[in-house]
Structures are given as C-alpha cells and as structure tokens.
Design a protein that fits this description.
heterotrimer; A mainly alpha (171); B alpha+beta (128); C alpha+beta (350); B: 128 residues; alpha+beta; mini-chromosome maintenance (MCM) complex, domain 2; 2 domains; four-stranded antiparallel β-sheet; three-stranded antiparallel β-sheet; 3 helices; 8 strands; 23% helix; 35% strand; C: 350 residues; T-fold; nine-stranded mixed β-sheet; 11 helices; 17 strands; 24% strand
C-alpha cells in the first residue's frame, strides 16, 4: 500500500468527472461542421451551468478552466490563438455567471444565464480577435451573426440544463 | 404534443427579459455594422500589420506569405477572394467572393485577412 | 462583504478591458484649432504621456509664434510695420524674427521677387487682413501706387539691433512661410523628446518624421474644387509637403474668384492656377520651404512655372491649372496614387 500525500477529496473526483464530460463535449463541439468558422453550439457550457446550479460556482470555474486546458491539449491548440480565444471566452462567460448566479431562481432560470454566458463567451472572443489576432474593425461585421447564434444555442443549452436538473432532482 | 410545448413554461420573467435584451443587441449591432454599399478598396493584413490597400476595380492576384505558407488573393470584377490558402480547413477559400463594404475573409491559421472598405480615408493627413 | 467583492471584481474587469484596448492603440493623435488654423499631430509608437507632452509643447509654441508674427494684431511684426510706416527706426533684438526676415530676403531673391512678404499693404488692400470679404474690387489706382512703390524685403536693413526700412511702403506679412516655419520648429520639439515617428499638419502643410509602424506615412492632396483628396502619396521621413491654392482663402465677386495670393508685380491675384503642391526633401528648413516656394510657382505665368521649379531645385511638384490641366514632375508622378478618375483630365509629365 502506498500512502498518497495529496489527499484526493470527494469533490476532486467530482470535478474530474464533470471536467471529463465537458472535455468530451468540447471535442464533439470542435468537430461539428459549421457554415461559418467559429459559430458553434458550445455544448460544453451545458456541463458548466449544470455544475454551478447543482454544486457551486467555484466547482464550475474548475470544470470550465480544466475543460479549456485539457481540450486544447487533446486538439493540439494549446497556447495557440485558438487556445487564448477559448480561454478568454471561458473567463468572460464565468465572469457573467459570477455576477448573475445569485439572482432569484423564481425570477430567472438557467436559460437566462445560459444566454448571457454564451453571449459573454462570444464577446470575450471578439475582444481577443479585435485586439490581437485581427486588429481591424471589419471583424465586427460578424458580431451580429455570432450574437444571434449565441442567443439560439443559449436557449437550447439552457433548456437541456433545465431538463437535466429536473431529472436529477426527481431521480 | 401539448406536453412538448410545455417547455415554454420553464421560461421565467428574467429569461424573457434577457432574450429580449439580447435580440435588441443583435438588431442594434446589425444596424451598426451591416450597412452594405459596394466596397471600393480591399485592405490586406498579415498579423498586426496592413500589407496594403488596393482598389477593388482591377484584375490582380496578390501573393501573401503568411504564418504557415503562401495565400493567393484574387481581385476581379469588383470583387475579392482568397483563391488559394495553405491552411488545412480551407474555410477562407470556401467563403468565396466578397464585394460589400465591411465584408471580410479571414484565414486564422495563416494570419492573413482581407477586408472590403468603402469610401475610407486612406491617408493619415491631408495637405491643402 | 460579498457585495464588495463583486464590485471590486467588476472594477478590475473594466480596468483590464480598458488597458487592453489601450495597448492595441499605438497611434497618438492630437488635434486643435488655434486662431483658425488646424494643428493636427500624430505620433506613432510612443507612450501616451510623452506624446501628449510633446504635442502640448508644439501647440503652445504655435500659439507663441502667432502672437509674435501676426501681421495685423498686436504682435512684434505689427509694431515693426508701424515703425516702418512712420519712417522711424525700430529696436529689434529678437533673433528669431531677425533670422525670419533674413530668410524672407533669401527666398525673395531666389524667386525673382515672386515670393514677397513685404507686400502686406496689398494683401490688406484686398481684404485678407480681415475676416470680412470685400464687397468691391480695390481702387486700381491704389493698387498701381502700391505696386509701383516696389516694396521689398531687401529694403529692410538690420544693423546693431536696429531695423530700418528704405521704403515706407514695406509691410511685413509672413503668412506665406510662418506655418512652414512652425513645422520645422515642431520637428525640433519632437526631436528634443526623442520622438522618431510623427506626422505634423499645421494648416495643411505637413512634415513627416519616421514611419507609421512598418509603412510610410500617407498624405492626401486636396482637390482644389472638391472637399476630398484627389490623390495620396507616401511622405518619407524628413520630407515636407505644401500647397498654395486659390481655394484656401478667397472671395468671389461677379463669378470671379479672387484668392489671397497676390502677384507682387501686378497687384492682382493670378487667375491661371488652381493649386500648386510641392514636396521638399529633408533639410533644416524643409517645412518652411514647402510653404514659401509654392507661392512663386502659383504666381508665375504657365510657361514659366516649370522653369521656376527647376531654378528652385524642386523635384516633386503638382500643378493644377485653371482649365483643369495637370502639370506633374516625373518624380512625383512615380509615387502619386490618384483617387479620382483623371482620364478626362489632361496630364503633362515633366
């Protein structure tokens, strides 16, 4: 028997499991064909939202950042432009959740949070693209399209999380 | 059937508020950035720097050495496109021709992008 | 406690976003209107603090020059003019003004008197020392009287800090080279601040220093009959560009345009030219020359323009004649980029 110095808590296991699912979803997301590069359903956000609602915000942060890191390593984009895009998206998305997560659930469900966070994700990515990758106002031309897609997928993802939460509570 | 439509009930006031706000933002951003007169110039950029501004009313092929190889940009009949690109996904090539102001073709892997600009001030200062 | 945490996080995020957008911006720009002149300074790749300090210095220096050289408001030049009119000697110790007068004499001699800053009386007679345009043409007899008096910068003698004029009709008006001089001074100020990349525009005259990142500065040249650029061209480091045009200051009477550029030999504004644009290579007085040399080219007859440009060693010139004909030097033609359809215009390359 070897004694482990680092104690692996129950919550670590949970974070690992959730992150694994998030990474898997992120990779599926990556390979979904899209008519416009960058317009993606962002299904990994389902797990992040689920985690925040089911557990707590800090766990959500862990899952989100681990997802960005591990998915980029698997896809070979680590430290490339795509990595920073997805990191900035994740950070902005988490920030928006941080500000809105405590709003009364009777007033706003996870659907609203899903739309806000996916819009924040898009805005974060545009910030990186505008300032670093393509420093030209011309890219703003694509912003309405990205925001529209984040609205649609935000609603869909939000509904899925809503269902997941309901099922877990029942079962 | 009715059961399926019940998901509408899950939307709370706050959700509708957010959806309305988001739609409003989308429409606003469309008005702000989607005016679509024909462009007059194309601007080619590599990474942070502008390689040049070219009139769109000419037939010309411009070769750009990007991050991973050479991109071929074609200007013809008042339109522009990326004709050949060394990138794997070829998104930029598939996008085809652009000619409206504010339109653009971007090749992220090769750090090459082209923008259609309108009656833009293409000088730093004017002598009079 | 928790509320405060949220607020401070929001605060930090806002600051980060602002500082991010700040570092994407390498171009500093300052524009100000000083006494009806637009001073536009662009500085590339310097910290905002230094760029802002240097441009404030340029603006305040321009302000100072204005108060020193203004031809009809209480300035040193105004006082000199008054003394000349009264035929009395003037104690002049300002070395800057003395050297400006001396260079004015040089330019007058080089241009066979077509550049003449001593004809302030004529400029004033034509109403260009006032904001109100004339309602009728000046009396031809008075014009003839002022022309025949032959005022010249060479009439001015400065000895032992004392200025005397041999001609009572001399009235100094440095309007034709003061802005160019201000450009050369602006360049010196930027050099003091160790700024290498800048583009300075004082009332339309432009001087370039260094580059805009990895490309040259691009300047537009205004179409004399439309409010847009008819052409653009790269302005290399140290070069200046200047234009004299009949559209800058003028008034119209009976469909006839009278510009502020007066022919010292006739006393009337010439009517054969719309604009003259020249480029001057790096030189101690590059900005000043780009300002001063356009006037003689504007005034001399169409046949003599090219000859005058050669005499002044101007290799880059663009002249738009009244009939829309364009005369351009080969050197300038090689770098100019036309922005308008010029197929219908007659262009002659020299």
């Amino acid at each position: 028997m070897t004694q482990s110095i680092i104690k692996i808590s129950k919550s670590d296991h949970m974070i690992a499991k959730l992150s694994a699912i998030a990474v898997a979803l992120a990779i599926i997301d990556f390979f979904i064909p899209s008519p416009i590069p960058g317009v993606k359903p962002g299904i990994a956000n389902i797990i992040i939202l689920f985690t925040i609602y089911k557990y707590d915000f800090i766990t959500g942060v862990w899952v989100s950042l681990l997802r960005v890191l591990v998915a980029s390593m698997i896809l070979g984009t680590f430290l490339g432009p795509t990595f920073f895009l997805s990191l900035m998206g994740a950070v902005m998305s988490l920030l928006s959740m941080y500000f809105l997560k405590d709003i009364n659930k009777a007033f706003m469900s996870v659907i609203g949070l899903s739309v806000v966070s996916s819009s924040a994700h898009v805005l974060g990515q545009f910030l990186v693209v505008r300032l670093w990758i393509i420093p030209h106002d011309g890219i703003l031309y694509l912003l309405p399209l990205f925001l529209l897609s984040s609205l649609i997928f935000g609603v869909v993802n939000g509904l899925i999380v809503e269902n997941l939460l309901a099922r877990k509570l029942n079962g | 059937m009715i059961r399926k439509l019940l998901f509408i009930r899950k939307f709370k006031t706050g959700d509708w508020l957010i959806i309305t706000l988001s739609s409003f933002l989308i429409v606003l951003s469309m008005f702000m950035w989607w005016d679509l007169p024909d462009g007059k110039y194309i601007e080619i950029e590599k990474g942070q720097s502008t390689l040049g501004t070219y009139s769109i009313n000419q037939d010309r092929i411009i070769l750009v050495d990007g991050q991973i190889g050479q991109s071929q940009i074609e200007i013809k009949n008042g339109k522009a496109r990326i004709k050949k690109s060394p990138c794997r996904k070829q998104y930029c090539v598939h996008q085809g021709w652009v000619n409206k102001k504010n339109q653009m073709v971007v090749c992220l892997p090769n750090y090459v992008s082209l923008f259609i600009i309108g009656d833009k001030k293409n000088y730093d200062s004017i002598n009079y | 406690m928790k509320k405060h945490l949220k607020l401070s996080v929001l605060f930090i995020v806002v600051i980060i976003i602002f500082s991010l957008s700040e570092c994407g911006n390498k171009l500093f720009q300052k524009k100000d209107y000083i006494f009806g002149t637009i001073v536009d300074i662009k500085i590339y790749g310097e910290s905002k603090k230094i760029a802002s300090e240097a441009s404030d210095k340029i603006l305040s220096n321009f302000n100072r020059l204005h108060q020193l050289l203004h031809p009809w408001e209480k300035s040193l030049i105004f006082k000199i003019n008054k003394a000349i009119k009264n035929d009395s000697p003037f104690l002049l110790e300002d070395q800057e003004v003395i050297s400006l007068i001396r260079r004015g004499q040089d330019y007058e001699n080089q241009t066979e008197g077509f550049f003449n800053p001593a004809i302030g009386k004529l400029v004033s007679l034509w109403g260009f020392h006032s904001d109100i345009p004339l309602k009728s043409i000046p009396d031809p007899k008075v014009i003839t009287k002022f022309v025949e008096a032959k005022p010249s910068m060479n009439n001015i003698k400065i000895k032992n800090d004392e200025l005397n004029s041999l001609n009572k009709y001399v009235q100094i008006d440095m309007g034709a080279y003061a802005k160019g001089y201000a450009l050369d001074q602006a360049k010196r100020i930027l050099e003091q601040y160790k700024i290498n990349n800048a583009l300075i525009n004082i009332g339309g005259n432009i001087l370039a220093m260094g580059m805009h990142g990895d490309r040259e500065w691009i300047v537009g040249v205004q179409d004399p009959r439309n409010p847009n650029a008819m052409a653009t061209l790269p302005l290399k480091s140290g070069w200046s560009i200047g234009t004299s045009g009949d559209y800058q200051k003028y008034f119209t009477l009976n469909q006839q345009r009278y510009s502020h550029i007066i022919d010292p030999y006739t006393g009337y504004p010439p009517t054969n030219t719309q604009s003259v644009t020249i480029l001057i290579p790096p030189d101690e007085n590059s900005g000043e020359k780009s300002d001063a040399y356009t006037q003689p080219l504007f005034i001399v007859g169409v046949q003599k323009k090219i000859e005058m440009a050669k005499k002044l060693s101007i290799s880059h010139y663009l002249i738009v004649l009244e009939n829309n004909e364009i005369l351009i030097s080969d050197e300038l033609n090689k770098i100019i980029m036309w922005q308008e359809k010029i197929d219908d215009k007659k262009i002659t390359i020299y």
